[in-house]
Structure formats: C-alpha cells, structure tokens
C-alpha cells in the first residue's frame, strides 16, 4: 500500500522531486523530437514512440552482441534512427505535409503499426532487458537509481545541445524560421523540403536517444512505444505546441506529477494521472503553460 | 436504379434473417463477427470519416460497453438486451466526458486523447476490482442465446448503417462534412462546430458500447485485456479506410472484405496480419484516400447516399 499523506517525510518528498526531475528530463528529450516535427511540418508523429522502441532494441543488441557499455550505443542508435527518419520522411511523410491532419495522423499510425509488427516478427514479443548499472547511489538520505540518474543527466545534456543548435547554428535558425512561418522562410531562400527532412531525422535521433536511455531502465518489448507517444504529446501540450523551451518545462513537470502521484496514490494510477492532466490542461489552458509559439 | 438497389438490399437482409435456419454453428459465428465489425467500422466512420477528427481509441467504448453490460448482468441480474443498451449509454457517457474538452479544440488533441484513453480505461477497470473483478475478469451466468445474439448484432450493424445513411443525407451530415473540409469556414457559416462534433462523437460511441455488451454476453467471460485491445481499434480503422471513409457503404464493404479475407486467407499468416494492416493504412492514405467505395463513386458518379 502507498503511505498515507500524514506519513510522508521531507526526505521522501525530496526523493520524489529528484526522481521526478530525472524522469522528466528523459520525457523532455523525447518530446522535443515530437515538438520539432509538429512545429516544422504541423504533423503529429504517432510513430514517435515506435522510433524510441527501435532505439531501445539497437541498444539491446549492441549490449547483447558486443558487451560494451550500453550508453556508448548512442553512437549507433542515434545515427541509425536518423537515417530511418530520413527515409520515412523522404518516401512517406513528405507526401502528407500540408495535407489535412487526418492524412498525417493515419499515415504515421500505419507506419507505427507496421514497424511494431516487423519488430515482433524479427525479435519476438519477449521482454528483453539490459542488465547494466543496477543499484543506486546514496546521497545522504536520498537513494538515486544509477541508470535513472545517468538517463536524466544525458537527456538534459542532449536537450541542451539541441537547444544550442536551434539557437546558434544556421540550420537551427532555418528550422525555427520554417516553424515560425513556412511560406516566408521559403521566400527567404530556405529549402523547406530539406528542413523537413533534417527535422524528421533529428527528431528520430532524439527518440532513439530516449530509447537507449530507457533500455537500461525498463523491460524492452515491441509495444513499449505507444505510452511515450502519448506522454510526449502531453509534454508539448503542457509546454505549448511549437514552443521548444516549453518542451523541457513540460517534461520536468510531467515527471514530477507522475512521481508525486505514485507517492500519494499507487504506481498503477500514476499512469492514468498523466492522462487526467492532459484533459485538465486542455480544458483550462489549451495554449500551454508558457503560452503561444516562441522559439 | 435506386429501386433495384433497394430491392437488392431487402433481399440481402431477408437472406441474412433466414440464414440461421440453414447455417452451421460456424456459419452463424462467422456472420455474427462480420456484423460486429460492420457496426464497429461504421461507428468509427460516423465521427472520423465525416468530421475528419480521427479517433485512435474507439475500442475504449467497446470495452466500456462490455463492462457496463457485464456488471449489470452478472451483479444486478438485468436482462441482457437491456444491459447491452445500457452499455451503449455508458459508452456515450464516456464520450461526453472525453469529447467535451478535446473537441472544443482543433487539430490532433482529440486524436492523442483517444490514443491514451484505451490504456486509462484498462487501468481503471483493473483498479476498481470490487466492481469489475479486476484482472481476474468477470464471468457472466451461462445462457444459450447465440441465435438471439446473432439477430441483435445484425440489428445493431443495420441500425448503425441506417444512422450513417440518415446522417450523410441530412443537413446535419452536410455540416459535419463542412467541418471536415474547412472548420474555419464552417464556423463563419454559423455552424456551432463544437456541438456538432460532440453530437457525432456521442452517436459514434453508442454503437460500439452496445456491440461490446453483446460481445460480453456472447463470450460469457470478459477481462481487461480481452475487451480493450489496441488491435480492435486498428481493425476498425483499416476496414473503414479500405472501404472508404465518409461514405455510407464503405465501412460495410471494408468490414466484409477484410474480415472475410482474414478468416479465409490470413488466419494462416497470423504473424503478418498487423504488418499488412499497417501497410494497408499507409497505402490507402497515400494512394486511394477515398477508399474502394469512394473510388467507385468518383468513377461512376454515384450519388452521395452510397
């Protein structure tokens, strides 16, 4: 049973805040990918969680076959999924950019089903795990799971890197310009089709990074991705659609809320809490916590 | 032309009504499931095909109906026909709860909210085990009624299709399609879009609720995994898309064609089933977005009520 509200000590609360922020950083890096695709192309990629799942499988096979440090598999999962993302965008998604939402939602849904099933065929539905860095670090009264701590920190670094790229590089500017106003960017000489391509690739790589980090923490199976699609979407709703820094805030907030729910209610219900949060935010503040689109 | 079509329809319905007299047990079960898929695909079509708001979690209504009816039959001794209708009401209630916040907004909010709904319902059913039996499932008292359920399921499929026909040919349906084509224009024309979308959504949730109730009565035992599978949503969508979304007969054609194929051919290639469904969705969206019936309608200039 979960402890009642009266028996919650400050140490437990601190514990929850730390694990919530670590989990939230991971949500942020995955959601940033979804936010980029949505911002640039107005496409909600239902297959985003599926790409995360594929990233997790890359890490599983990397660790299983080579025995090397699973975190190094970021060097494999991110480029591989980047390439897959380019392919998906070039041959499938590009055809529905600018079409009614119905088309892109259904298309990415179809892609997701096909990829999940292909994974089942190739690797079966067995639960896989990467046994690495089990146990926790003790920081005073706090116990922080090693894999979760590394996942949180790496996710934060990657998110920072992505923001840095968006702010400072020429490509990042072009991406922001395209998501700000596509036609004007085009008039200013931005090759928007190329920006779409790169954006989908980068977004897939970010999902893959999330998959690698998740692979060390939880069981890997072909259907693990769907929950991440929903949560990533919740994160960008919280942060405000098209608002890239909002994704970080939204991710941290979601992580905190889930951990608090697990503390005060039960772990099972904490899954549903994210969902209730989505409905409430849509009712009360549909433009997101940070409001409008600013990048 | 129209008279001939009506005569053919009457003939088919009569044939289906008399079919149990000559059919084997397997034949009845086959048709029963066929009716179920027609009702489900058609219900999805009512909201997603007409308004363009994609529901990725329609199976949540099926499951809600199944549990509403199941609990009423098993714990309160309701007659099953009444309990199944209550299942439809329960599903519509859930639709109201979800649709009210999500349909006031545009874009993908609704689609994603529906994507998560299924999981949440499964968690809820497992959590309130005092009422639902939780993960252990819920057993209904035994009852020999497969013939009555055959007719009830057939009637549900026919009624949902009739509803689609009435909606498509009505002013209400025209307004829904206006929302699909251009919501801003629809609003400018003075259509209260939120209310219309919600009405279509409630209508499309009731059918799966009743079907879920009938499914529970037919199976005699339900558990969270058996009535909330994502695969059911996928199948509904594929059937409606394949036959032609936004048309009256498209979902019927899609359901009969794909369910028939599934029983006859794909049962041997079960492992490829979902992969194929994914490929069908991608292919239809990219190359024949109007579906089979839509294609025929464009080619032969058939009227809107087809």
Write structural notes for this entry.
- The complex is a heterodimer of chains A (295) and B (306).
- Chain A is mainly alpha-helical and 295 residues long.
- Chain A has one domain: Orthogonal Bundle (ABC transporter involved in vitamin B12 uptake, BtuC), CATH 1.10.3470.
- Chain A is 71% helix and 3% strand.
- In chain A, helix 1 (10-41) runs parallel beside helix 5, helix 1 packs across helix 9 (225-239) and helix 2 (48-66) packs antiparallel against helix 3.
- The relative contact order of chain A is 0.21.
- The mean pLDDT of chain A is 89.
- Chain B starts with a helix and ends in a 6-residue tail after the last helix.
- Chain B has one domain: ABC transporter involved in vitamin B12 uptake, BtuC.
- Chain B has 15 helices and two strands.
- In chain B, helix 2 runs antiparallel to helix 10, helix 2 crosses helix 12 and helix 7 (146-168) runs antiparallel to helix 10.
- In chain B, strands 1-2 form a two-stranded antiparallel sheet.
- In chain B, 77% of the residues lie in helices and 1% in strands.
- Classes of the chains: A mainly alpha (295), B mainly alpha (306).
- Chain A binds chain B through residues 44, 46, 92, 95-96, 100-103, 105-107, 109-118, 120-121, 223, 226-227, 229-230, 233-234, 237, 268-269, 271-272, 274-275, 278-279, 282-283, 286, and chain B through 48, 52, 54, 56, 98, 101-102, 104-105, 107-109, 111-113, 115-117, 119-120, 123-124, 126-127, 180, 230, 234, 237, 241, 271-275, 277-282, 285-286, 289.
SSE layout:
The complex is a heterodimer of chains A (295) and B (306).
Chain A: H1 10-41, H2 48-66, H3 74-91, H4 101-123, E1 136-139, E2 142-145, H5 146-168, H6 170-180, H7 182-187, H8 192-215, H9 225-239, H10 244-264, H11 267-284
Antiparallel strand pairs in A: 1-2
Chain B: H1 2-22, H2 25-51, H3 59-76, H4 80-102, H5 109-127, H6 129-132, E1 138-139, H7 146-168, H8 171-181, H9 183-188, H10 193-219, E2 221-222, H11 224-227, H12 230-243, H13 250-264, H14 273-287, H15 291-300
Antiparallel strand pairs in B: 1-2
Helix pairs in contact in B: 2-7, 2-10, 2-12, 2-13, 3-4, 3-5, 3-10, 4-10, 7-10, 8-10, 12-13, 12-14, 12-15
């Amino acid at each position: 049973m979960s402890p009642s509200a009266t028996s919650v000590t400050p140490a437990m609360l601190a514990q929850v805040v730390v694990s919530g922020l670590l989990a939230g950083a991971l949500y942020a890096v995955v959601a940033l990918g979804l936010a980029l695709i949505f911002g640039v192309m107005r496409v909600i990629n239902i297959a985003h969680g599926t790409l995360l799942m594929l990233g997790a499988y890359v890490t599983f096979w990397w660790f299983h076959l080579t025995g090397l440090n699973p975190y190094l598999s970021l060097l494999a999962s991110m480029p591989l999924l980047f390439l897959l993302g380019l392919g998906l965008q070039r041959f499938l998604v590009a055809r529905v950019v600018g079409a009614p939402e119905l088309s892109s939602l259904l298309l990415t849904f179809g892609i997701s089903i096909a990829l999940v099933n292909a994974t089942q065929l190739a690797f079966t539905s067995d639960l896989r795990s990467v046994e690495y860095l089990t146990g926790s670090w003790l920081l005073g009264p706090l116990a922080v799971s090693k894999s979760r701590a590394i996942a949180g920190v790496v996710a934060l670094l990657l998110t920072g890197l992505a923001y840095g790229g968006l702010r400072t590089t020429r490509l990042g500017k072009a991406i922001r310009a395209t998501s700000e106003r596509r036609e004007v960017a085009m008039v200013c000489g931005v090759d928007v089709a190329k920006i779409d391509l790169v954006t989908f690739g980068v977004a897939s790589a970010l999902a893959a990074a999330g998959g690698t980090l998740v692979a060390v923490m939880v069981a890997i199976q072909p259907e693990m991705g769907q929950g991440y699609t929903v949560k990533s979407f919740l994160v960008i709703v919280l942060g405000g659609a098209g608002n890239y820094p909002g994704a970080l805030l939204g991710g941290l907030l979601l992580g905190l809320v889930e951990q608090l729910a697990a503390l005060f209610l039960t772990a099972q219900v904490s899954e549903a809490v994210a969902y209730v949060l989505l409905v409430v935010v849509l009712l009360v503040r549909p433009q997101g916590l940070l409001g409008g689109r600013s990048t | 032309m129209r008279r001939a079509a009506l005569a053919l329809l009457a003939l088919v319905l009569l044939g289906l009504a008399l079919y149990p007299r000559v059919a084997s047990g397997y034949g009845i079960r086959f048709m029963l499931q066929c009716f179920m898929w027609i009702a489900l695909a058609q219900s999805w079509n009512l909201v997603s095909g007409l308004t363009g708001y994609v529901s990725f979690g329609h199976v949540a209504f099926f499951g809600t109906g199944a549990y509403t009816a199941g609990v009423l039959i098993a714990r309160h001794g309701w007659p099953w026909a009444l309990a199944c209708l209550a299942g439809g009401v329960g599903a519509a209630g859930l639709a109201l709860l979800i649709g009210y916040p999500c349909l006031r907004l545009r874009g993908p909010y609704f689609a994603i909210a529906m994507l998560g709904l299924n999981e949440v319902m499964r968690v809820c059913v497992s959590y309130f085990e005092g009422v639902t039996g939780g993960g252990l499932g819920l057993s209904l008292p035994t009852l020999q009624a497969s013939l009555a359920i055959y007719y009830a399921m057939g009637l549900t499929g026919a009624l949902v299709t009739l509803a689609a026909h009435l909606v498509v040919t009505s002013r209400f349906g025209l307004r829904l399609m206006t929302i699909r084509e251009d919501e801003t224009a629809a609003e400018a024309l003075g259509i209260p879009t939120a209310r219309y979308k919600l009405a279509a959504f409630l209508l499309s949730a009731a059918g799966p609720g009743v079907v879920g109730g009938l499914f529970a009565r037919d199976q005699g035992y339900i558990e969270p995994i058996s009535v909330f599978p994502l695969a059911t949503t996928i199948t509904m969508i594929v059937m409606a898309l394949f036959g032609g979304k936004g048309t009256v007969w498209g979902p019927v054609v899609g359901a009969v064609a794909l369910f028939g194929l599934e029983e006859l051919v794909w049962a041997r290639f079960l492992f490829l089933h979902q992969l194929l469904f994914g490929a069908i969705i991608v292919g239809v969206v990219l190359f024949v977005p109007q579906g089979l019936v839509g294609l025929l309608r464009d080619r032969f200039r058939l009227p809107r009520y087809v």
